[in-house]
């Protein structure tokens, strides 16, 4: 009898910033990546950080925080939601002034919805 196990990806060994939902840049090149069920801190060089923040997949929502646009599942009021079928929903607050730009940058697809975007608050 042959046992076939499911291959699990080790996010720490095979880390890819494009798999994360958002990241925050700290002092001295320390970057904290937030994903489905993890937060990984890595020290990056100035060149690596520059390459990351200029990547079109990421959009700056505050001075030191960037969201991964392809990973956004929904926007409700001032909250961006990231969905994962196994781990559920992870959210992050987004300043209102950035919501319209994020909405324009999101790929158009049937599962992406924005709720409360047209409300004036």
UniProtKB/TrEMBL annotation:
Q: What is this protein called?
A: LytTR family transcriptional regulator
Q: Which domain of life is it from?
A: Bacteria
Give the species. Paenibacillus faecis
Q: Which InterPro entries match?
A: LytTR_DNA-bd_dom
The opening ranks of the lineage are:
Bacteria, Bacillati, Bacillota, Bacilli, Bacillales
HTH LytTR-type domain sequence ranges: 19-106
GO MF, one example: DNA binding
